[in-house]
Amino acid sequence: MMIKYKSDDGLENWKGRTMEKARQVKRVLLQAIKIAVGSSVAIYLAHILGLEYEASAGSITLLTLVTTKWETVKLSFYRMATFVLAVVLAALTFGHMTSSWLAYGIYVFLIVAVSHSLGWSATISVNAVIGTHFLMTRDFSPEFIRNELFLVMIGITIAIVLNLFYDYEGQRQDLIRYMRETENQLQILLCELAAYLYNKDMEINVWDRIIAFEGRMHEFIKAAYDYQDNTFHSHPGYYIDYFEMRLAQLQVLHNLHYEIKKIRKMPKQALVIADYIMYMADYVVEMNIPDQQIEKLEEISEQMKQEELPKTREEFEGRALLYHILMDLEEFLVYKKRFVNGLDEKKLRIYWKQEMEQKDSANELQK
C-alpha cells in the first residue's frame, strides 16, 4: 500500500496550504474591491437621482455584499419585505412621540423583536438606518418613503449584480485538494489502527490525530457549504455530501480506536482483521464502490464464526471486541455505499464519469 508519509506528505500539504492561502487572499481582495466599488456606485446613483441621505445607499450595499450569493438573494427579499414593516413602525413611534431617544428605543425594540421572530435578524441593521432618517425628518410623505425605498433598492440591486463575480474555480480546486487530503488522512489512520492489531509499538497518538483532523473536517464542510451557497446550481451539494460522509467515517474510526484499546490480549484473529484493514485502506478513494470490500468483510466474519470457541474469559472478551471492530468496519463501508447510492445521474456524470474518462485518456497517452 502506497501512502505518503512525513516529508512527502508534509511537502505536499505545505504546497497545498500555500496555494490555499494565496486563493484566500485573492478572495478577500476581490470581496474588498466589490464592496468598495459597489458602495461607491450606489452613492453615485443615489446622488444622480437626487435622493436624500445618499451615503446610506453605500452602507446598504456593504451590508448586503458581505454574504454568499444565495444569502444575498434571500436577504434582498427580506430587506424589501421588512422595509414596509420599518415604515409602519416608524410612523407609529416617531409620528406620535416627541422624545426622540425614547421613540427610537421603542422603534429598535419592535424591529429587533419582530425580525428575530420571523428569522430575519440580518435585516435589523438596514432598518435601523432607515429608522434614523424618519426620526430626523419626521416626514412620512409618499415622496420621502419613495426616497428610502430607492436607497434600499439601489443597495440590494448592486449587491446582487456584484455577487455574480465569484472565484468558483479557485474554491473548487481547494475542495478537490481537501478531498485528497481527507482520503490520505483516513488511509494513514487505518494503517495506524492496523498496527495496534499487529501489536506494534506506536510512536504516534492516534487519538489526538483523529481529534485534530475532525476539526479540519468541519472546516472542509463549511467550505463546501460556502461553495454551494455561491452558485445557483444544485449539484455542488456533492461536496457537502462527500465531506459529511467522510466525517461520519472518521467518527467510526474514533469508535474503532476505542474498541481496539480495550483489548488486553490480542487474539490470533486480530492479525486477519489487521490484514483486512490494510487491504481496505487502499480503497479509501473518491471513486470506489465498496461492494467487494463489504463482501470480503462478510467472508472474514463467517470464517471467525466457524473457528473454535474461546477457552478463557480473556480470550472471550478479546474475540467479542473483535466482532465489534468488524461491525465498525462494516459501518465505515456502509457510509460510503450510501453516499454512492445517493448520487444521481447528473452527479455521476459530472464528478465521476467525467473524471474517470480523463484518467483513462491520461493512461492511454502514457502508453
Sequence-ordered SSE layout with sheet pairings:
Elements: H1 6-48, H2 55-65, H3 69-93, H4 100-118, H5 124-137, H6 142-162, H7 168-197, H8 206-229, H9 237-261, H10 269-281, H11 291-305, H12 313-341, H13 345-366
Helix pairs in contact: 1-2, 1-6, 1-7, 2-5, 2-6, 3-4, 3-5, 3-6, 4-5, 7-8, 7-9, 7-10, 8-9, 9-12, 10-11, 10-12, 11-12
Oligomerization: single chain
Q: What level of helicity do the residues show? A: over 70%
- Can you write the helix and strand succession as a string? HHHHHHHHHHHHH
Count up the helices: 13
Describe the largest sheet: none
Which shape, going by the Cα principal axes?
elongated
Distance between the termini: 23 Å
Task: Tell me about this structure.
It is built from 13 helices and no strands. The protein is mainly α and 367 residues long. The N terminus and C terminus are likely disordered.
Q: Could you give a quick summary of the protein structure above?
A:
The chain is mainly alpha-helical. Helix content is 79%, strand content 0%. It has 13 helices and no strands.
Which tags fit this structure?
367 residues; disordered C terminus; mainly alpha; disordered N terminus; elongated
